[in-house]
């Protein structure tokens, strides 16, 4: 088990790595007096297989042109954007995954530039479909060195509860490929932000229903499915580091997949101890310190049963200071090819 928070002590039983996705007994965690985060070493992979990862890159933009209405430190600054791109590339090199879903990317060109400048030896191909987030200008994309058969996105919209509106997922992508001998669809998402905002609950649940329908269709076509990315929400059945509870059913909706009882998706977070369950930093008190209570798990990798059966390793790679690279951490899984 990896630790990066100063002198973390576990006072009760650790969760079994093979625990099922039911309500686990939460650990009682004692925070160190300083309560400060310390990065852990890079993951050491113990098994061979196909590695899939997800990472929110925090505005992987190029510093040129119209960069949306959101603010970020390297906005409109090509040299600062280049340095940020190099830091993200170093993280990707460390992970060395075969397929990586990236969130908060500007366009295909910025990803190709990162590969050409910093990762030419990793032989990634960019897979990108233009989304519809006009406010931030962000999109999601896939880097893969595995052959990809087809790429797309869902444009479906569903009713928003309590309104006459419909809503879709502005930032999503899917790729179809083979993981070893298994036909698989990888679905990448970046859902509406602010998990604790009740005003956004109906829209984020509508987004979850859109993704659930896509999962159901892919499963019905005989494909295994993985849904991964920044869900901006907590899992109601698996407590994260600080025991956050969702106000929505976003994870439950997507994991249900279909009415059938045997195709539910599995959150790989259940495979790691509660002390490792965090993927994002939010500086709630604005003191620019990375403290325990400001860490949460809002990024997830969900696997359909056939992929879960091939799951060999899970790493929540908290390997850098989130104030200097990105405010999210990657998740990496290793899957047996057959």
Characteristic terms for this protein:
338 residues, alpha+beta, Deoxyribonuclease I, Chain A, 6-stranded mixed sheet, 5 helices
Order of helices and strands: EEEHEHEEEEEEEHEHEEEEHEE
What name does CATH use for the topology? Deoxyribonuclease I, Chain A
Q: How confident is the prediction overall: mean pLDDT?
A: 91
Number of strands: 18
Number of helices: 5
CATH class: Alpha Beta
Estimate the strand proportion. 25-35%
In the CATH hierarchy, the architecture is 4-Layer Sandwich
The percent of residues in helical segments reads 10-25%
- What is the CA–CA distance across the termini? 27 Å
Please describe the biggest sheet, giving its number of strands, its sense, and whether it closes into a barrel: 6 strands, mixed
Structural class: alpha+beta
């Amino acid at each position: 088990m990896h630790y990066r928070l100063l002198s973390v002590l576990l006072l009760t039983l650790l969760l079994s790595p093979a625990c099922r996705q039911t309500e686990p007994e939460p650990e009682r965690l004692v925070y160190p007096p300083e309560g400060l985060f310390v990065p852990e070493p890079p993951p050491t992979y113990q098994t061979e297989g196909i590695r899939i990862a997800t990472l929110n890159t925090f505005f992987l933009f190029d510093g040129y042109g119209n960069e949306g209405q959101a603010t970020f430190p390297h906005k409109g600054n090509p040299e600062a954007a280049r340095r940020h791109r190099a830091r993200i590339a170093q993280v990707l090199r460390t992970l060395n995954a075969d397929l990586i879903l990236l969130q908060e990317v500007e366009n295909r060109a910025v990803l190709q530039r990162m590969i050409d400048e910093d990762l030419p030896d990793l032989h990634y191909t960019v897979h990108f479909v233009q989304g519809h987030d006009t406010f931030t200008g962000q999109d999601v994309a896939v880097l893969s060195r595995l052959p990809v058969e087809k790429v797309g996105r869902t444009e479906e919209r569903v009713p928003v509860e309590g309104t006459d509106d419909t809503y879709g997922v502005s930032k999503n992508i899917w790729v179809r490929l083979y993981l070893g001998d298994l036909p698989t669809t990888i679905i990448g998402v970046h859902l509406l932000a602010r998990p604790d905002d009740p005003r956004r609950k109906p829209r984020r649940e509508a987004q979850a229903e859109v993704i659930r329908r896509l999962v159901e269709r892919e499963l019905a076509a005989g494909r295994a499915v993985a849904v991964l990315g920044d869900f901006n929400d907590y899992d109601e059945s698996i407590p994260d580091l600080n025991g956050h509870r969702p106000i929505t059913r976003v994870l439950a909706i997507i994991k249900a997949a279909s009415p059938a009882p045997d195709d539910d998706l599995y959150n790989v977070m259940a495979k790691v101890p509660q002390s490792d369950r965090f993927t994002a930093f939010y500086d709630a008190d604005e003191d620019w310190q990375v403290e325990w209570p400001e860490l949460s798990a809002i990024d997830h990798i969900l696997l359909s049963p056939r992929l879960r059966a091939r799951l060999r390793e899970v790493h929540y790679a908290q390997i850098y200071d989130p104030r200097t690279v990105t405010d999210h951490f990657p998740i990496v899984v290793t899957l047996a090819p057959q």
